């Protein structure tokens, strides 16, 4: 079995001039906008490329090379706004995109909240965040890694006889954002992943599960065999799944699915949801939303992390901050527009949050199961039955029924029903098995006394 030992690539695939090329494009757009008499303008130019391979049952199923480029430009005539975009970065196409944006702006209504971010909020010092680690394994090597990943899963147990494939993907991108306040910022980064999804079957039926690894550096990925084995172990554990009768019980959301609970929370404190009055957390600033031990915060400057960024998509400097401290909501998630709507300053979240983190507790998942005693461990959530206006929560789920702190048997075809207000207040513990494969960082979360709808 081949181990992951990627070739070292010290320079970006695009070459060292990508930053300069994109800066020229953005500045050309701003110059063209000024020539049209705009009050203000902003432009974002990007280049990206990647390779993705999927192997199923040892045969190549997909092999895709991607390359993308583009420019988006927004212009302001007072409080009138127009935007346009193009995938052609030639000077003539850039000029045409600017003219299109200006034409649109002349026909839009005035909006007093429209405009660039305030100049004093723009990033002036750009920290080095270690985000760019290009990897170009080539198609043959990527196919080999995907095969090894899938083979490790298929070889673990004879009950695993089918597969949805082993996959390898690489991505590299560079973006330049500039505006007429004089700000020019570059953000370049990479993201690589390796995954396997397999199907197991016995006399009781068929189950599917998967595992994946993702990182900015290829040499930080788990080995293909380890990913395949983990996928196989997870699917085997699901064989013999049963239904549950409807009941109320404590529930542990395993860390990879617990991230969704924090994502729903961020959706409810986003500026757009708030100024539209479409949030169950409207007017909750300074109020208790979680138990007193809960702290939720952003860490935008973690070196090498998947959610790190020195500035947001408006050029506003990012900074570490608490969104929830001692269970109390400390701040919203705002860009400049929503901040003006709410008469509050931007929080540097145009484009989203950065490495959102809930502080972990002292217990791992095994000890959380013991603390829970009897209840449900959720390892998969299905469907999108979440209403952030009312907080109503209803999602299909699968996982394991726990008795005396130990797994008793796998379960499926159940639904978890509650209200997010009660779920957040009912958090009893957060595990230290922190999920690091994305922009939301949380351990497994134990919530007391939820409704589990079954047969």
Helical content stands at 10-25%
Kindly report the spatial arrangement of strands forming the biggest sheet.
Answer: 3-2-1-4-5-6
Write the element-wise H/E pattern from the N-terminal end onward. HEEEHHEEEHEHHEEEHEHEEEHEEE
**CATH architecture assignment of the largest domain:** 2-Layer Sandwich
CATH topology of the largest domain: PmbA/TldD fold
Q: Work out the strand percent.
A: 35-45%
Mean pLDDT across residues: 95
- What is the C-alpha radius of gyration, as a whole number of Å? 24 Å
Pick out the low-confidence regions. 1-11
How many helical stretches? 9
Profile the largest sheet: 6 strands, antiparallel
Give a count of the beta strands, DSSP E runs of length 2 or more: 17
- The coarse silhouette is globular
Number of domains: 2
Give the CATH superfamily of the largest domain.
PmbA/TldD superfamily
Structural class: alpha+beta
Report how far the terminal alpha carbons are from each other.
44 Å
Q: Under the CATH scheme, which class of the largest domain?
A: Alpha Beta
